[in-house]
Design goal:
By secondary structure, the chain is of the alpha/beta class. It has a single domain, classed as Vaccinia Virus protein VP39 (Rossmann fold, 3-Layer(aba) Sandwich), CATH 3.40.50. It has helices at 32-37, 41-59, 76-83, 97-106, 144-157, 174-181, 194-203, 225-228, and strands at 66-70, 89-94, 114-117, 130-136, 158-169, 207-214, 239-245. Helix 2 packs across helix 3. The longest helix is centred in the first third of the chain and has 19 residues, at 41-59. It is globular and about 40 Å long.
Length: 249
């Protein structure tokens, strides 16, 4: 299923594509198929957050792990991470000041993350300052010709051994394609496949590339969740995850 979490498309200075959607942002849940599949955008974010918390435990990173949400939008994913008991420090950035204001206005999950307005040509952070960098439904909103630069920026801000985690809509899933084509916030979207995401991570310098599928069942039906990981090998989920690690050397 398709769901929008952020806004990273290049825009003229002081404007951003998602400023127009910021007030009362609902991640395109007015699409009736998405509304049938989930009670709200939080349901989609919850699945991704649970996946990430499980992944962090599996790789052995501790509670001090610092995480950047690139293109955080109204902080839907960051809120889901807090609810999923992610123990590390959280930060987010976005090109839309309106979305960041909405994130601050609607934050209810304890101490807020550090949110930064993102310039249109770089991430507003120094070298090697995060353990995890996440792009949650962001890259399909970045023009293909500009994506390589942003993968490079994510590489730059990660510490050696840090992971870059890409959550994206799966163009091989017919329901996802149908929903994206009929959702106003996705009017300019260009979907990317698991293969493209993996290749882009590799081109940016990441190693140990892995991909898996998520959201095979409508998020509304939580009793299907145990089956999600059993189907992760099948490249037909509504979304997928691509992970790359910055080399230790």
């Amino acid at each position: 299923m398709a769901e929008r979490a952020s806004s990273a498309r290049t825009q003229p200075e002081h404007t951003a594509e998602f400023d127009q959607f910021a007030a009362g942002y609902n991640a395109g849940m007015d699409n009736f198929v998405k509304h049938l599949a989930a009670s709200g955008a939080d349901d989609f974010a919850e699945i991704r957050a649970e996946w990430l918390v499980h992944y962090v435990k599996a790789i052995g990173n501790g509670a001090g792990t610092s995480l950047l949400d690139f293109g955080c939008g109204s902080a839907t994913f960051l809120k889901a991470l807090r609810r999923a008991r992610y123990g590390g420090t959280l930060a987010g950035c976005d090109v839309s000041n309106g979305m960041l204001e909405e994130a601050r206005r609607t934050w209810t999950e304890g101490a807020p993350p550090h949110l930064s307005l993102q310039p249109h040509d770089r991430l507003p952070y120094p070298l090697q300052c995060f353990d995890l960098a996440v792009a949650s439904a962001v890259f399909h909103h970045i023009p293909p010709a500009e994506r390589g630069r942003w993968y490079g920026e994510l590489y730059r801000v990660l510490r050696p051994g840090g992971r870059c985690i890409i959550f994206e809509h799966n163009p091989w899933n017919p329901v996802t394609r149908w929903v994206v084509s009929r959702t106003p916030i996705d009017a300019n979207a260009v979907l990317l496949s698991q293969r493209e995401a993996g290749a882009a991570l590799r081109d940016a310098g990441f190693e140990t590339i892995s991909t898996s599928s998520i959201i095979f069942f409508p998020p509304r039906f939580k009793f299907f969740r145990p089956w999600e990981r059993r189907l992760a090998w099948l490249p037909l989920g509504g979304q997928y995850v691509a992970v790359g690690r910055r080399p230790l050397a």
